[in-house]
Amino acid sequence: MSGCEPGGSVGAFLCQAGQVLRAAAVEAPRQEARLLLAHAMGCRQEDLLRDPRAPVPPEAEALFRRSLAARARHAPMAYLLGEAGFWTLDLLCNPATLIPRADTETLVEAALEAFPERAAVRRVLDLGTGTGALLLAALAEFPEAFGVGVDRNPEAAALARANAARNGLADRAALLAGDWAGALAGRFDLVLSNPPYIETAAIPGLMPEVAGHEPALALDGGADGLEAYRALAAALPALLAEGGRAVLELGAGQREAVAALMEGAGLRTLGCRADLGGVPRALVLTAGR
Predict the structure, then answer these.
(1) Which part of the chain is the Release factor glutamine methyltransferase N-terminal domain (predicted)?
(2) Is 273 left (phi over 0), alpha (psi -120 to 50) or beta?
């Protein structure tokens, strides 16, 4: 961090860190500087503002400098802080998984709308579970349910297990490494999935925090963005219990194409819930025409 002397004050570090982030075209540079320094010092942002002349301890300074340099290279804040909020959960995050997003909460809302009687859901499946966000949010809302989450990346499955324990849900969840539903038997009342759906050629044009840092395995939906949906269409008819529902996340403009794939596999579209931006985001399906 150019111009910041070792052993400097909180105020000096924040001022100069804000300049570094502003030069790197990071949005809200002052706020992000406070977040990074509070994380490094193990305190709240309000504590930094209360005493701007306080010295920054050497061990906190070292962590702050590393985090600041990474953020200036557009490493996502959630990876640097190691956590993110989703629904009612506090989730650990690392570069093995996508960062949970508010748009994905639309799938939880759609699931709750599909099952107004919470006790009706006993078995939940999350395909491509990542941090475990969707599965764990569903288990928090459906108290009688047991859930299975599957991810192709063993590191992601391990992180999801840690998140289940962190949120008091470890005894109601099995988090597995596997290729979609290949190793699963049995049927589920609710199947959730936020699959990779970005067209391969479009990934380099995404914001740098995503294109340069989030895992390509969880982003790349193939040439047309629909590769994972084809695998889901093949698997879902055998996974849904009678009266069961599947809720799939969609990318912008994918509603008609994904619905056609699912209906071609013998599923029936019940509706599609839009996110807060008005984008059709959560496609709700059931077995049978």
Answers:
(1) 16-82
(2) beta
Domain ranges of the chain: 10-73, 84-287
Single-letter amino acid code for the residue at 193: S
H or E, element range at 32: helix 29-41
- Please indicate if the annotation marks 87 as binding a ligand: no
**CA–CA gap between residue 281 and residue 271 (Å, rounded):** 11
Query: Which two three-digit tokens encode residue 171?
Result: 């005894």
The response to whether 178 counts as a known ligand-binding position is: no
Specify the CATH number of the domain 84-287: 3.40.50.150
Q: Report whether 132 belongs to an annotated binding site.
A: yes
Residue whose structure tokens are 């939906």: 221
Q: Give the span between the Cα atoms of 93 and 255, in whole angstroms.
A: 29
Question: In DSSP terms, which residues pair with 94 in a beta bridge?
Answer: none
Query: Model pTM?
Result: 0.92
Judged by DSSP in three states, 167 sits in coil
